[in-house]
Amino acid sequence: EPIFNADGRFTGYRGIGKEITERKREEALLALEHAVTRHLADAATSTLGLEAVLRRICESQGWTAGRYFSLDGEVLRFSHAWGQPGEAVERFIARSRDIVYRRGEGLSGLAWQTGASLWVRDVSKDPRASGSSGAALQGGAFVFPVKAGERILGVMSFSSSDVREPDERLLRAVGVIGSQVGQFLMRKKAEKKQRRREEDL
C-alpha cells in the first residue's frame, strides 16, 4: 500500500516486507521438501537416507541436533542422529542412544501416540518433555511421526540450544517429510527382503 506525507509526496510502501518474508519462507520450506526427496532418491541405504534428512533439516532450519527413534515392538528406540559439531551436542546424542520411549511418554512418545507433529518452545519449562537426554540442549524442540500410510514407523526429533517460537509452516512441511521418509523406509525394507530371497535361490 503506497504511503504519502501531508504534502501528498510519496514516502514508501506499507506491508510489502511482510509479504516478501512470508513468500521467502514458503519457498525455503518447499526447497527443503524437494531436497529431502532428492536425498532419499539418492540414498543407497536407509541409514544414509535418514542421516541425510536429519542433517538437511538441522542445517537448513538452524536446529542443533536431530534424532530418529524407530518403532521396535511396544517402544521407540534410538536409531540415528546428526548434530552440529560440539561437546554438548556429542553428549546429548550419546545420552540419546540409551533412550526408550513408551507410547505417550516424552515428546517422541506423544507424537507416536497422537500421530501428529508437536512443538515445544522451551523444553526446560514444558512438563511433556522427558528430560531423558540431560540438560545438554535445553531450548526449543519439535517432533513428528514418520508414517507409511497410517502406520507409524518412528519419530523424528529436533532440538535446539535456544528457545524457538512455534513455526506452523515448518510443522506442515514435516508432515509431508514424515510421509516421504516412511515410504522410503518401506521401500528399502522391501528391497532388502527381495535381495535375501534372491540370495536364498
Question: What does this protein look like?
Answer:
It is a single chain. This protein has 201 residues and is an alpha+beta fold. It has five helices and eight strands; from the N terminus they run ββααββαβαβββα. The chain is globular. The protein starts with a strand and ends with a helix.
Q: How would you summarize this macromolecular structure in one to three sentences?
A:
The protein is α+β, with helices and mostly antiparallel strands and 201 residues long.
Layout: helices, strands, pairs:
Layout lengths: L1 E3 L5 E4 L2 H27 L3 H16 L3 E8 L2 E9 L3 H10 L3 E3 L3 H9 L3 E3 L20 E8 L2 E9 L8 H33 L1
Antiparallel strand pairs: 1-2, 3-4, 3-8, 4-5, 6-7, 7-8
Helix pairs in contact: 1-2, 1-5, 2-5
Helix amount: 40-55%
Low-confidence stretches: none
Largest sheet: 6 strands, antiparallel
The secondary structure category is: alpha+beta
Mean pLDDT: 87
User: How much β-strand is present in the residues?
Assistant: 15-25%
Q: Helical stretch count?
A: 5
Strand runs, count: 8
Radius of gyration: 20 Å
Our measurement of the CA-to-CA distance between the termini, rounded to an integer number of angstroms, reads 72 Å
Q: Going across the major beta sheet, what is the strand order? A: 5-4-3-8-7-6
Categorize the overall geometry: globular
SSE run: EEHHEEHEHEEEH
For the structure shown, list the relevant keywords.
201 residues; globular; 5 helices; two-stranded antiparallel sheet; alpha+beta; 6-stranded antiparallel sheet; 23% strand
